[in-house]
Specification:
- With 76 residues, this protein is mostly helical.
- It has one domain.
- Helices cover 64% and strands 0% of the residues.
- It contains four helices and no strands.
């Protein structure tokens, strides 16, 4: 689930930050397996956040996407 940063409690923000590595791993796997399209990357990250039970905000989703691009490459 994605919400504006200001609408997320500090505890929920901390939980999302703790889940960052798991979100990044899932994004990298999706890129490597070809399940990642530029137009749905935020939705893929949101789906993984829901699976992990964390709430994320747009900037965190963008940070995960950027990290996956750097780790796997921008052509995947």
């Amino acid at each position: 689930m994605i919400r504006p940063y200001r609408d997320i409690s500090p505890a929920a923000r901390a939980a999302a930050e703790l889940a960052y590595d798991d979100l990044l791993d899932a994004a990298c796997r999706a890129r490597q397996e070809g399940r990642w399209r530029a137009d749905d990357q935020r939705e893929s990250i949101c789906a993984e956040a829901r699976r992990l039970g964390v709430i994320i905000w747009p900037a965190l989703a963008d940070r995960v996407a950027s990290g996956a691009r750097q780790l796997v490459g921008s052509t995947a």
